[in-house]
Amino acid sequence: MKRVKRSKKRDERNDVNDPFIMIPMELKLEILMKLPPRSIARLRFASKHLSSIILGKDFTELCMTRSSTQPRRHLVSVHRGSDMQLFHSFSQEEHPSSNSNDHDKVGYTLDPDVRYLFTPPVRGLICGRKGIKMVIGNPSTGQFVTLPRIKTRKKEILSVFGYDPVNDVYKVLCLTVITQRGNIARGIISRDYFLEDVMAWEAIVSKEHQVITVGAKNKWRMIECKYPHRHYAGNHGICRDGVLYYLASYKQKRSLMGFDLSTEEFNVTKLPDDYELQEFGNLVNHSGKITIATQVNTGAIDLWVQDDVNKEVWSKTASVVPSVAHICGANQRLMFRGILPTGEIIFAPLPSPNPFFFLCYDPKEKKVRQVVVDGIGDDSAAIQVFFDHVESYMVL
């Protein structure tokens, strides 16, 4: 992202004539926090004094604390045409409407023909990747910055974005895989997993483990992992309390991998020996708890919840997919996407309808509400929906 260079003398002249300097700091912060994030991002160019406040960590944390007390938001990412990425943001408690002041939409022009897929937002920021290209963005301000390209020639990549509260930094973990034929001779992979000289899926493990700290001039660093595992392509990881979690095959079993962003060490958690979980389990958003959901043939949904992250103890609950023929039609498939703090279960129709919508089901009241997102039509593709999003005033 190109940054505007300003004259030092001009900045000093603006500061001298800036009446904002004479206002008490507490009042300054109150005034700034009443402005929308996009205005804050532009206002930092008004004067050196304003820039020092807006770019300061104290202001960013104060805004984040306030945003965290507000109703959480839905965030919808839409790739439109060949080079436009749109983000729709609106309260989880209200119906989004083009006439609503709460419905925010920001567009960002990407490189032509590059369709980024994004990981779940973390403290208002998101991370998008296409091959070895990667961006970090703040949908609230419309700012996106490009990270250094991932150092690999492999095609199968998993990237997980998170926040390290110990060091107050954002990091990205990146895994790539390589076939380990030598593992057969060493006995790590059983010969029974090979048939007609075709390499078994479990014989392919993550070999390159890289991490980058988001910030100026930082580079990808190779790190060690003592747990040979294979991540599942197409699955998103999540960040909880400074730890990145994702599902992977470890010792021929679906397992929960953890990566501590502070110590940069891996750990592995055993999952229940349940057939559907082992074959179809997906890590989902569930109000801050590590949860694995299974849904087979659009039937009942099993939720495996880890109540204590330090113990390999999982509780299981089941939920029935509601009847929504009156909304979607008799032949519309519903896929589970997550659970809101209110307890509502989110379902997304497949294929994506036009106009685009998703469903919120209250299992206690047995009620379904439809959430239609305005502005998403036939020219939209690669639609992603995220929940529990918060606005961020952080300037990138």
Automatic annotation (TrEMBL):
InterPro entries tied to this protein: F-box-assoc_dom_typ3 (IPR013187), F-box-assoc_interact_dom (IPR017451), F-box-like_dom_sf (IPR036047), F-box_dom (IPR001810)
Residue ranges occupied by any F-box domain in the UniProt entry: 23-63
Protein name: F-box domain-containing protein
Species of provenance: Brassica napus (Rape)
